[in-house]
Design a protein that fits this description.
Layout (H helix, E strand, L loop, with lengths): L10 H12 L10 H13 L9 E8 L15 H10 L4 H8 L2 E9 L26 E4 L17 H20 L4 E7 L3 H13 L15 H18 L6 H8 L2 H15 L4 E3 L2 H13 L8 E4 L4 H10 L3 E3 L9 H19 L9
Helix pairs in contact: 1-2, 2-12, 5-8, 5-9, 6-7, 6-8, 6-10, 6-11, 9-10, 10-11
Enzyme class: transferase
GO molecular function, one term: nicotinate-nucleotide-dimethylbenzimidazole phosphoribosyltransferase activity
Pfam families: DBI_PRT (PF02277)
């Protein structure tokens, strides 16, 4: 994987964007956080008016062995059902992708069973799609058939972590080569908030009770079980502070590692990549421990109810664009934020300017 250091934001482009906003026919700072978000995009892209015409959401898919501990509100195997809904155009993200002209890519990095896109072609009942055309692009880059139960073993081999990091980076490179100008990031994986809680606790040196949330909406009993699982796993593995690759190997997920690689590569390519909820923020935390220069390139869609995500957002000092009280996952918040950012760049590009004062 590319290990070149991540450079600073383009301050000249950011200042040019600020001045352009200030010269438009509107109240000063009238578009609020949208203006600062676009200025941030200018710093990443090096463009006074960032161009986000072609947008893609990358959704990493994997299964987790720890799900067998009953830490999710959904049973094992539900991950595949969610994928099928995506490929039929019936998931929230698929609908948003269609209506916002955002390309939807699902990438299998760790499903237990194979899932062939041709089996799930979108039907005539899906608006905007021709019969036989899939509602999302399905790419199989399986690294292994899910992770192991990290209460019993390491989640995955260190080599698998490195391969997942490279896989994520390759997907971003492919998107850039195909002319994609901005990314949203998402995931599907039953049990992955348990993994994220363990990673966050390990990297931020926090007790499990401060990072474990309800995830998919678990009951009080399941919540307590989830806390015990995370605490026991951290006690068993004793992950080294600050070593993101080792932590991922011990208690991580294949989709989390792939997202980490994607986040790092997007920054190196100066390609905006918007984070979604707890899982993508956990990947961003891993990316930070691999290269602290990533912090300036992190774009957050929203702040979720997950306490672990809130700890990461505070640690990385991120500012969310949206305040929709989301608790979804699957890239929904990231796609929504990316579309809002696109609309804001259109305003910056096309809105009229105040007439110059005569001397």
């Amino acid at each position: 994987m590319n290990t070149d250091p991540i450079g600073p934001l383009d301050q000249k482009a950011m200042e040019a964007a600020r001045q352009r906003w200030d010269g438009l026919i509107k109240p000063s700072k009238g578009l609020g956080s949208l203006e600062s978000f676009v200025v941030h995009l200018a710093g990443i892209t090096g463009q006074e008016v960032p161009c986000l015409n072609r947008r893609r959401v990358l959704i990493m898919v994997a299964e987790h062995g720890v799900a067998e501990e009953g830490v999710s509100a959904y049973p094992e195997g539900m991950t595949r059902s969610i994928v099928e809904a995506f490929l039929h155009g019936q998931s929230g993200t698929a609908v948003l992708g269609r209506e916002t002209s955002t390309e939807v890519y699902l990438i299998d990095v760790g499903l237990k069973e194979n899932c062939h896109r041709d089996c799930y072609a979108a039907g005539a009942s899906v608006p905007g799609y021709q019969l036989g055309k899939a509602a999302a692009q399905w790419i199989s880059l399986k690294i292994s058939a899910g992770t192991k139960n990290f209460l019993k073993d390491r989640a995955m081999k260190r080599e698998e972590v490195l391969l997942a990091l490279q896989t994520g980076a390759n997907l971003v490179n492919q998107a850039a080569e195909e002319g994609v100008q901005a990314l949203a990031l998402g995931e599907i994986g039953i049990g992955n908030t348990t993994s994220c809680s363990a990673i966050t606790a390990a990297l931020l040196q926090l007790p499990p009770e401060e990072v474990v949330g309800r995830g998919s909406g678990v009951s009080d009993n399941a919540m307590e079980r989830k806390r015990r699982v995370v605490a026991q796993a951290l006690c068993q593995h004793n992950p080294p502070a600050g070593d993101a690759v080792e932590v991922l190997s011990m208690v991580g997920g294949l989709e989390i590692a792939a997202l980490t690689g994607a986040i790092l590569e997007a920054a190196r390519l100066r390609l905006p990549a918007i984070l979604d909820g707890f899982v993508t923020c956990t990947a961003a935390l891993c990316a930070f421990f691999l290269d602290p220069g990533i912090r300036d390139y992190l774009l957050l869609s929203h702040r979720s109810k997950e306490t672990g995500q809130q700890k990461i957002v505070d640690f990385l000092q991120l500012q969310p664009l949206l305040a929709f009280d989301l608790q979804y996952g699957e890239g929904v918040g990231a796609v929504l934020a990316l579309h809002q950012a696109y609309l804001a760049t259109c305003v910056l590009r096309d809105m009229g300017k105040w007439p110059q004062k005569k001397e």
